[in-house]
Amino acid sequence: MIKTLILYVCIAWTLLLGSPTPLQAQQLWTFDTTSPFLSTDGSLSLVWHSVKEHPELSPGLTGLGLRTDGYSTYLETKLPSTIPGTGLSGCFALESYPTDTAAFFGIQDKDRQATLTLCVDRFGTLLLGKGQQDHYTYYPLNSQVDRFRWFHLTLCVRHGEINLFLNGTKVQVPPVASTTPIAGFDRILWGRDFRVKEAWGYNLTHINGLMDNLAVLPPAANLLLLQKEWQQEATSFVHKTPQLAIPATRFAADFNRPRYHLLPSANWTNETHGLIYYNGKYHIFNQKNASNIMLRQINWGHFSSPDLLHWTEHKPALSPDQPYDKNGIWSGCAVLDNEGIPRLIYTAGGDKMGMAAASPKDDNLIEWEKYSGNPLIPGQPSSYARTDLRDPYVWKEGNLWYMIIGFGLQASEGKHGDHGAVLLYKSKDLEQWEYVHLLYEGNPAVDDSGIFWEMPVFQKIGKKYVLLVNKVPHQGVPARALYWIGDFKNEKFIPDHPVPRNLEVVNRLLSPSVLETPEGLVTAIAIIPDEIGGKATYQQGWAHLYSIPRVWQLKDGKINQSPHPALKQLRGKKIPWKKRTINPGQPASLSKNARQVEVKATLTPGNATKFGFTLYKNPDNSEYSRIYYDVHTREIVVDQTHSTLRKGIPLQTRKGTYTIDTSQPVDFHIFVDGSVVEIFINNEDAFTTRIFPQYETSAQMELFAEGDAIEAEAEIWMLKDAEVKADF
Predict the structure, then answer these.
(1) Distances (CA, A) of 283 to 342, 402, 517
(2) What string of DSSP letters covers 537-592?
(3) Is 539 exposed, middle or buried, given 0-12, 13-18 or 19+ CB atoms closer than 10 A?
(4) Common-topology check for domains 7-237 and 568-726
(5) SS3 letters for 148-178?
(6) Nearest in space to 565 (alpha carbons), one of 510, 523, 525
(7) Which residues pair with 545 in a beta bridge?
(8) DSSP 8-state secondary structure symbol assigned to residue 110
(9) Strand 419-427 and strand 434-441: pairing?
(10) What pLDDT, in 10s, does the model give residues 185-233?
(11) Are 676 and 638 contacting, i.e. CB atoms less than 8 angstroms apart?
């Protein structure tokens, strides 16, 4: 539900009463701490709209500025007839370009028939928006604004003429848009457009960043004097870096938000990719939309860490800005080239899908330059009709570089009907690529591998190769990470067994990014999606996160997964817990506050028919989830039918076929962090889930048994935070 806060601000219209300076004409809303939203007489009200509980005041250009979220936060002003205006001005800093054309500010005339807005498109180009009875036209201007920098904007209307200024420099208005029917205005929007354009339940016309020094220009304002003032003010912008990190207050009360898992500052993220180690730091990249909580306007986000636990989020490494990638910088990989310099290779979403590359401008990998010869691969091989190909993965064999790309063949292109495949290319220099053939293709009738593969990984572990793919959702069957183990011979993948294994026992985690660390540990980090409803996500303000780092080892023809040893650094207070018998109907408490906790439990099942854990339990039992092994059905069961009273959260049960030798002790290694649970069985197999209770008191963890007693011993640690920091 949108909250509205009336913020009273007095506008000292001394320009009409005396001899004001240009500065007095500008500084009407400064959001400063001395008087954050009030001035001396409170004659004009400023209305704050947002899904947030409270306004977010961050360091501004001077004093404080108002932080917006990209999809719900904006300001509204209504002018009484006694206070006429001739235009607007303000200072802005963008964290991201919008998902669609969005407005910094706009005016509406008295009869609500016409609007004028100063806007920005998804590439940073300024536009003038003109509306008439809900019909809107946008005129590109010959001016660009950068992200992560302050700039000053002005829109002024006099005698039917439109005047626009960027940092005090007049912006040429196209002749076709130079006149306006607006003679006066009585309604102002700051931070969004009058036009509403929705997708996924989000209005795409908001800006994401900071607003400061907002002003309504009175009719008698001297534009020449003001222009000089804006130009002088703009010279200080060069030395003033906006602080665009999400305010800590935004998620301070969100007990479901993880505190030691990797996730972006806010809004939307999708898969990780490009996990590398360079100059003493780990780097990982991700699909990121900072402007909305939706899969559009995808940039390559960027994180770095000294230890795979404590991450810093940087500004995006790559953003759509070229014809060949204008529709998104989609997934890919990172490698160290022949000189040991990182190279990003990504899916470029242009008019058709292709592959492109970029190289760093600095050793911290903050700034990147796209390869002048992009796209490396402009589209699918000529022998195939399908134009959808994506997610390159690159590795080196001897003196040659190889690239595989996720693909799918249509029924007319093979004997297996529609089925997934990976294309194979090779190169000597990472720039000139030659198509070879299909590295491998599926046979859904035999291997249930689906109709299209994405996010492929081809990782050598010891003397064997792992080919991992995500089969895409199809006919109600969700995406799933599958893998084969085999050999790379004559530029073909030869699996040891035609039927792949599931990466997770119970399906949730997808699309791992894999790296062999300097210590020789094959380490993977993958996405664990939320899978909650759109309204719940809107209220939450963020979507999806990434797994803890996992170590992969090959044993008995499968990937064994275990927590990376670096996670021991997070252990805090150890909770004493003695070995005991758990009888049916008499659960044993493991933790009273299981928000950030690690549990290593060894269970001896005996003749029990079910045994496992109750998590996120409320004292009144109104919310709880159960994760257990069913001996009779040989399944791991994740029962979330009572997990939450929140609206929009699926209440469901998921199962995975799994065999446990109940004559032997079974080790469960559990990591709980806010809404995410990761469980490892016998340091071999793993699965994940997400749980979103309504109440903070839903935080108890218990052991239970059914059918007969079990023996249990456990080690329990409260875990320290390792929250992601932002350097922008």
Answers:
(1) 10, 22, 12
(2) HHHH-EE-EEPPPEEEEEETTEEEEEE-GGGGGGEEEEEP---EEE-TT--EEEES
(3) middle
(4) yes
(5) CCEEEEEEEEECCEEEEEECCEEECCCHHHC
(6) 523
(7) 528
(8) T
(9) antiparallel
(10) 889 999 999 999 999 999 999 999 999 999 898 887 888 888 998 898 8
(11) no
| 461/184 Cα distance (integer angstroms) | 71
Please give the structure tokens belonging to residue 576.
Answer: 């004493």
Q: Is the dihedral of CA 402, 408, 412, 415 positive or negative?
A: positive
C-alpha angle with apex 594: 590 to 595, nearest 5 degrees? Answer: 170
Q: List pLDDT tens digits, range 670-706.
A: 999 999 999 999 999 999 999 999 999 999 999 999 9
DSSP track, 219-262: TT--HHHHHHHHHHHHHHHTT-----SPPGGGGTT-TTS-SSS-
How, if at all, do strands 725-726 and 312-318 pair? parallel
> Above pLDDT 70, what percent of the chain?
94
**Taking Cα atoms as reference points, which of 695, 700, 690 lies closest to residue 533?**
690
Give the CATH superfamily of 568-726.
Exo-inulinase; domain 1 (2.60.120.560)
Global confidence as pTM: 0.93
Class of domain 7-237: mainly beta
Burial of residue 588 (CB within 10 Å: 0-12, 13-18, 19+) is: middle
Residue 408 near residue 348 (C-beta atoms within 8 A): no
**Residue 43: which pLDDT band, with cuts at 50, 70 and 90?**
low
Residue 358 in tokens: 């970029």
How far apart, in Å, are the Cα atoms of 483 and each of 167, 322, 457? Answer: 55, 35, 9
Beta bridge partners of 337: none
CA 40 centroid distance within chain? 42
| CATH number for the domain running over 380-498 | 2.115.10.20
Amino acid present at 633: T
Order of strands, edge to edge, in the sheet holding 135-144? 3-9, 44-50, 74-78, 185-190, 102-109, 114-120, 125-132, 135-144
Instruction: Write down the domain spans for the chain.
Output: 7-237, 380-498, 568-726
Tokens of 204: 């795409």
Q: Which residue in the block uniquely carries the two structure tokens 């929140």?
A: 646
- Average the pLDDT over 59-70 and give the result: 93
What pLDDT is attached to residue 154?
A: 96
Question: Residue 561 has which token pair?
Answer: 């997964």
Name the 3-class secondary structure at 535.
helix
Position 25, amino acid: A
